[in-house]
Amino acid sequence: MLVDGEPAYKRAAGLADREADRPMTEDSIFLLSSVAKPIITVAALNLVQSGTIGLDDTVSEWLPAFRPRLPDGTEPRITVRQLLTHSAGLSYVFMEQGDGPYHRHAISSGLDDTDDDFPALIAKLTDIPLSYPPGHGWGYSMSLDVLSAVIEQASGSTLPEAIAALVTGPMAMNDTAFSVADPRRLVAHYGDASPRPRRLVGDDAVPFFGNPMRLSPGRIFNARAFHSGGTGMAGTAGDVIRLLESLRTGQSAVLDAPTTRSMFDIQARTGGLAAGPGWEFGFGGSVLVESEMAGTPQSPGTLQWDGAYGHKWSIDPARGLTVVALTNTAFEGMNGRFPVDLRDAIYRSL
To answer: pTM of this prediction?
Structure first.
């Protein structure tokens, strides 16, 4: 946690591997799951500010094979902006029931293992009817993975190369990539269970709001799987907070101040779908609009998101506060009691 740029609290607690009795360390590497999304968002906005791509570009200009249709057969225009804000009409396999089209087409969320590459993923997504007309709804989705394919085309390089050039290299995020910098520092990942969390093995399933979410910690070592910009990176808390703090201050090595500020603006209305009442969506995360409605001590204008493997981050510009909490337990560390208690303790201390 940083307050006005100064370290206020930093701690590695618990075990990185319970079975091996290996302690957590400050340089432990975690599978970031959706903490990858702000990284991909910053990369895309970097390309926007350079004029390489435009927010209102039609996605099919970059990905000619990406032409999904609405249930009535019409082909709507989908933009880069809609991909960035999860308003493109796409979905996630874990957001639907077991007989839904994402299940029938075996769409990988980026968290489960697959041998699909980007062309195979784009072909599958094109075969599935959109959930709603783009720009006229909101749904957490595979849109950052489609955006990742756009980044590849626009940059003329692979996604790992593009992210290294656009974000992690300039930001000195040396342990953050689509591979594990040092496997000895990678934490073991666990899923909620009773009486204690259980180690995730293979292509595992953990209940998520009534649906199973498939989690495969070994996916990051599968060279055949598409590099998931939505969920597929690994990194450290130190790397993540370095990026987030640059967004708070607007003094980034990769984004100018106006572009950075746009991440904290409301970019899509979600009707409470993004993070509950009082929250809307910016670029890279949800934006707090009404603290009392949301039931949070955070300030309006706070940007926040999380990660399925057990992570939560937030930036509260009004309080000069940047917070990152990475855990190795899905989903307690993301939406259980832990992140709520941590948030409340932080604001009491302020």
So the answer is: 0.98
